Amino acid sequence: MTRPTIGFIGTGMMGQIAHLANYAQLRDRGECVIAGVTDLKASLARAVAEKYLISQVYESDEALLADPGIDAVICVQQWPNNYQLVTRILNAGKSVLTEKPMVGRVDEAEELVALAESKGVYYAVGFMKRYDTGVELAKQLFMELQESRELGALLAIDAHCNGGDWIQNAGTPISVDDPTPLPPLQPTFPDACQTPEQRAAYHYLVNIFSHNINLCHHFLDAEMSVRAAQFRGDRAMQALLRCGDVAVTVRGSVSAAHEWREHLVLTFERGELAIHTPTPLNRQSSARVTLLHREKSGFATTEYHAPVAWAFFREAEGFVQALAGQAPLRAPAEKCLWDVRVMDRIITVAEVF
Ligand SMILES: NC(=O)c1ccc[n+]([C@@H]2O[C@H](COP(=O)([O-])OP(=O)(O)OC[C@H]3O[C@@H](n4cnc5c(N)ncnc54)[C@H](O)[C@@H]3O)[C@@H](O)[C@H]2O)c1
């Protein structure tokens, strides 16, 4: 499969701005084919198809999945829809990319990972930060530092997200005045989530911090364990984790600001690697990477400038390349399953006040 054929289930805001717009560019470069789109709001699907010069609008996800010409589906949904839709997509024998978080429960995630494996298809989760050029550069530096021991042992990781304006100037998605009622979302939760407060805290955790937990796993390449956690409702959280002898903190709060404020700091015995990940929908920025290390004259901070590229666009390129057998997936579901397990443990041990 050198030029994979892709279908889209869901043409909402992120489906349009962060995904379809990028695949349309890849199609125009001759790297994939877009078979068509579908949305429960048929008039939205038609308007979006017209904008992106897509000739086919399927009447339902079933109709799209019945098309034998489609190799893979980009399914961008509110997360409670992921489990049902991904089950159908994988059972149809098609590869899939969904947005994060993967699903609400560990047993659902395990079932889907096993299903994808049994069908021999790709299952990718939209942790686009793994494709950010700054993150890529930092991961390379990190691996070199682990090898050379130049800064000594890795002691701790601090993953922090205070959020802020995540859209900035990304443009306005098409919206239509379509009265079609959507079925109510039916989120599923870990067993420990019994109260509305715990469920709100879990939604905050999976919606925001799944990214930060996923990035920790990306660097550590091993699953973390959870020691303690607390949530101030769905406005602030802190979790203490561990991976071997590395202490990990994941924390943040909802605090208004003009841009996204998020970082991952890896602290070594004799220095520090810091990655400041950018506003998600800003196409013109990549993560800023700094390295604190000792030079002859004393400690110095080096700032690295990775090529400017949009992580969402590179994620689309990466998915198409994986489908074409040219590169491995960078956020395969079997690795993202680690995040679902860790988030289950966090909410299970957490104090929510
Ligand atoms: N990676 C990031 O940084 C980031 C940032 C923001 C949001 N997100 C993720 O994006 C997702 C939300 O995406 P969105 O804004 O496009 O959502 P949305 O609600 O705007 O769009 C979903 C669309 O899917 C359609 N739909 C629902 N069920 C369907 C079905 N069975 N068949 C066809 N269409 C169906 C709906 O009508 C809707 O138009 C969330 O999971 C969120 O976590 C990720």
UniProtKB/TrEMBL annotation:
A GO MF term: nucleotide binding
Pfam family, one: GFO_IDH_MocA
Domain Gfo/Idh/MocA-like oxidoreductase N-terminal: 6-127
Origin superkingdom: Bacteria
Transmembrane segments: none
PANTHER family the UniProt entry points to: CONSERVED EXPRESSED OXIDOREDUCTASE (EUROFUNG), OXIDOREDUCTASE YCEM-RELATED
The name this protein goes by in its record: Gfo/Idh/MocA-like oxidoreductase N-terminal domain-containing protein
High-level lineage: Bacteria, Bacillati, Chloroflexota, Ktedonobacteria, Ktedonobacterales
